[in-house]
Amino acid sequence: MKFREAFFIMLFAVCAGIFQATVSPFLPEPWASFQPVILLLLSWILRNRQKQAMLFAVIAGFFLDIYSPSMGSIAMVRFLVLAVVLFLISKRILTNQSLYAAIGLDISARGSDWLMQAVYSVLTGFFSGAHVFRFPSFGRTLSSFAWDVGIIILVFLIRALFARRFVLPSMRPKSYG
To answer: How far apart are CA 39 and CA 83, in angstroms?
Structure first.
């Protein structure tokens, strides 16, 4: 990985982590569920860039931990584990680079993230003796998934238009051979 590429990944990670920790929770409800860290992590996973995804996960998670109001946040570890799990899923199960694979990977990402937060909540509640379990909002996870699907579809359509993947028959050059 070149220095310039690492610099831009770190810049994106810092911006996404700070946005998700400081701006996103204070937005009105349909906008508050937009969480760019997992979506940007997916973009590097879909491009088969494991080192870049790991770097992004660690830095974005670190900034989420710094700006988190709770003392026991483990976003850095959570996103690093999520990057490894998603990379394994993309290499072993969802091997093609289609729109359906991207949406399936997003379902895996949001579900795994929700599960890790729920397990962390149960473990901290159990070991602290409070026995108060605060599960993450499943409705908010679904609205985050809706944001992700909309953005993934938009990015795939723009990418297909620039790559001329969908060429109409009337636009094809005629061959006289």
So the answer is: 11
Distance of CA 7 to the CA centre of its chain: 19
User: Is the pTM above the cut of 0.85?
Assistant: no
End-to-end C-alpha distance for the chain, whole angstroms: 46
Tens of pLDDT along the chain (177 residues)? Answer: 899 999 999 999 999 999 988 888 888 877 777 888 988 898 888 888 889 999 999 999 999 989 876 656 788 999 999 999 999 998 888 877 778 888 888 888 888 888 888 888 888 777 777 666 666 677 777 888 888 888 888 888 887 777 765 554 555 555 555
CA distance 124 to 94: 33
Q: Where are the domains of the chain?
A: 3-164
- CATH topology classification for 3-164: Arp2/3 complex 21 kDa subunit ARPC3 (1.10.1760)
Q: What is d(CA 72, CA 52) in angstroms, rounded to the nearest whole number? A: 26
